[in-house]
Design goal:
Order of helices and strands: HHEEEHEHEEHHEHEEHEEHEE
Radius of gyration: 48 Å
Mean pLDDT: 80
Strand content: 15-25%
Helix content: 40-55%
CATH topology of the largest domain: Beta-Lactamase
Distance between the termini: 83 Å
Shape: rod-shaped
CATH architecture of the largest domain: 2-Layer Sandwich
CATH class of the largest domain: Alpha Beta
Largest sheet: 6 strands, antiparallel
Amino acid sequence: MERVRSRTLAMQKSEELAETAAVVFQQLIGLGIEPNRLFIAIVNEEKDDAEFWLTEEDGTKVSRAFTTDLVTNISLAKMYEGWKQQQKSLIIDMQGEELQSYFSHLTRLGVPFKDGLKQKRRIQEIAYFSKGFIGMASPDEQSAETLNLLERFAAVFNLTFTRFNDLKIAEAHAHQAEEDLIAIKEAKQKAEEALTELQATQKQLIQSEKMASLGELTAGIAHEIQNPLNFVNNFSEVSKELLDEMKIAIEKGDTEEAKEIASDVIQNLEKINHHGKRADSIVKGMLQHSRTSSGQKELTDINALTDEYLRLAYHGLRAKDKNFNATLKTEYSDAIGKANIIPQDMGRVILNLITNAFYTVNEKKKSGDSKYEPIVSVRTIKDRNNILISVSDNGNGIPQRVLDKIFQPFFTTKPTGQGTGLGLSLAYDIVKAHGGELKVNTKEGEGSEFIIQIPYAL
């Protein structure tokens, strides 16, 4: 029995049950017991069946033979009933019709018999353990000592089965863990593919957002330079007419009139030069802000930058919607001066916030309230070591239920096709990169205020 215990404790796999069962049978045979066959049955009470492990008729070659129900055959039913009643052991003396029925049942299950089928009598000695029973088949009666030994081996085999069951559970867990690992790897691969696709899409959307901002800038620039160009065109036409008149005066010999006309032409040319330089300055300044960021910080006039993008945002929206109008209120602090920032990036932030403010008041105006007057206010403030740029509106405000999401990528309250949901997310990242914060104060139905806070020491 110590050998059986040792082999049990040495089991590493559930399939080693056959080897442990073989040790049991070898020890029984070594004690002088000579059965026709030894077997172990593992009972499944839920299904009323059992898994049988058998030796050959000479007691050798243990293997898992079959699984069968324990209610159809009368002899197996007796074995099952003894187990259910928690008996210690049982002896079944099979003869005649019962024996032939037993042989017929096992033969259908593929159990090989050699000389056993010639028997007229077969005695089954059964010893029970918690999960099944050990059986010994013999044509002759055995001594009480033999049954006692079988009972003792059954008690030892109870430990064997516990070990067997633990190993099966561990193997099932290991198998499940392996399947889970495969599933995790597949999910990881799909997630990586989805992430790659998402990153590609995000890059396209970011580029779209930048191009949309560039469109606002382009419209604003076009309007800004239109005014000085109108002066250039008008004074050019007037100057041409004056020169025609001067030519006639010279032909008449009226030098005084020719000199007066020449003086007017000179003044017009000075005005043309002035407005031409103004247009040139606007183009250079606006393109400086609209081109791709170099990533280099520069000392930048915050008030001038803010005012430029306010005008660009306003004229950009007017270019798309001629009916749009809003009251602009500005309050720029002279104490701010210049700050070391990336002007192109910070300009995009200001442009985005002001454009959103214009969109908000325009939507509220479209709601049909005849008394409503759209107002967008822009302020710059010096607050100790920080610069504050405030953009506020008297629009509809931001609902509290979405307030925590507004800086998340791809979140937008605008209808499909009118926003990518990246504007505020990019603005938030740009301000963070400058060591600052982008904050929002809002009251639903009354308006919102976005505040850019950036430190002087950048």
